[in-house]
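Colleagues,

For the teaching module next term, I've prepared a clean inverse folding example: a structure given as tokens, and then the sequence designed for it. I'd like students to try predicting residues themselves before seeing the answer, so please don't circulate the second half yet.
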């Protein structure tokens, strides 16, 4: 009985039942004139390939960007096939991707904060590039372009990087007072976002040196050192990013590194006024048709618009700062940067305002 069962299973496994086998390729039995299968097996392979840019796509906040994605078949098909395209944004914590856009033929649908700002660029043929209008700070990151043809599913990754500036931030209540969630909101309050590791690394390559650890978007606390010294990891340790590793987002407290990009308005020092208290400064900007500038806006104007002014002025977070792109006597250290007077409890200063264009 057992022998008979084995024979039946072997016979069943050898039966093609008229269907081609598929494992990413198609195999067809070639039939002779007599209706019998030849010994030769005809091999026909059709492979779907998705190509994205190996280099990051750079843009500014408020600009438009095209994330390139093309697909093709090998060998080339004579008849176009109906495909679906899905774009999603990868999350740094490796949780589920954020849906951006799906498209099938002429029908497209965007999701969440991308709604009304994204579309698929489908000309010429076999193009599935993503167009994002009016870029926002949180648009920066890695995106997945996925092309679906029946059971075939291929994808590629493309990175969108915003040009901007990374700056360290410490709140008014002092050093190492922010958990991860407070740090994230603190950057947003300054017209910025929490910086990523890649953004901090790029800033370090450009010369950023800061000896206080700050939160990054991946949940780690790090700080950049270009000149090794004893209080900052030791003078014998090579320059680089000092990494405290991933920390508890509720229990641990650090400063934060923020990132800001191009502005849709202008930051300026309000001239022709006497020195002001903080409340007077806020009102003076309003009287001028503007609002008191935020820290992220001042850093953006300094880095991207070369704002240079040797006059200390109030900002929205109650700090007093001023931007220097061309160092000179009586204007602070010999390096360009944002000079800070901290958070004065008393005193009168000028004010930096921000006016939308």
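(Answer key — instructors only)
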């Amino acid at each position: 009985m057992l022998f008979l069962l084995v024979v039946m299973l072997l016979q069943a496994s050898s039966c093609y039942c008229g269907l081609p086998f598929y494992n990413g390729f198609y195999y067809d039995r070639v039939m002779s004139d007599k209706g019998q299968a030849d010994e030769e097996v005809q091999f026909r392979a059709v492979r779907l390939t998705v190509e994205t840019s190996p280099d990051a796509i750079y843009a500014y906040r408020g600009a438009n960007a095209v994330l390139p994605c093309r697909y093709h078949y090998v060998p080339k098909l004579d008849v176009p096939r109906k495909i679906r395209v899905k774009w999603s944004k990868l999350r740094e914590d490796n949780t589920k991707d954020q849906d951006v856009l799906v498209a099938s033929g002429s029908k497209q649908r965007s999701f969440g904060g991308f709604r009304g700002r994204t579309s698929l660029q489908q000309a010429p043929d076999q193009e599935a590039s993503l167009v994002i209008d009016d870029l926002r700070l949180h648009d920066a990151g890695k995106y997945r372009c996925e092309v679906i043809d029946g059971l075939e599913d291929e994808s590629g990754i493309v990175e969108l990087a915003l040009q901007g500036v990374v700056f360290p931030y410490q709140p008014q209540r002092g050093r190492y007072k922010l958990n991860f969630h407070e740090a994230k909101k603190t950057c947003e309050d300054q017209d910025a976002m929490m910086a990523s590791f890649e953004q901090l690394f790029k800033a370090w390559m450009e010369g950023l040196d800061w000896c206080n650890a700050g939160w990054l978007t991946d949940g780690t606390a790090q700080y950049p050192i270009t000149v090794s010294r004893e209080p900052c990891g030791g003078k014998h340790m090579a320059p680089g990013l000092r990494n405290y590793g991933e920390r508890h987002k509720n229990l641990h407290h650090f400063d934060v590194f923020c990132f800001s990009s191009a502005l849709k308005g202008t930051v300026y020092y309000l001239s022709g006024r006497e020195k002001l208290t903080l409340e007077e400064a806020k009102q003076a900007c309003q009287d001028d048709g503007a609002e008191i500038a935020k820290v992220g806006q001042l850093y953006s104007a300094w880095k991207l618009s070369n704002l240079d002014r040797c006059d200390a002025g109030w900002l929205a977070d109650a700090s007093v700062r001023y931007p220097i792109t061309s160092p000179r006597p009586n204007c602070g250290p010999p390096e360009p940067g944002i000079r800070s007077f901290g958070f004065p409890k008393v005193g009168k200063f000028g004010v930096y305002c921000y006016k939308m264009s």
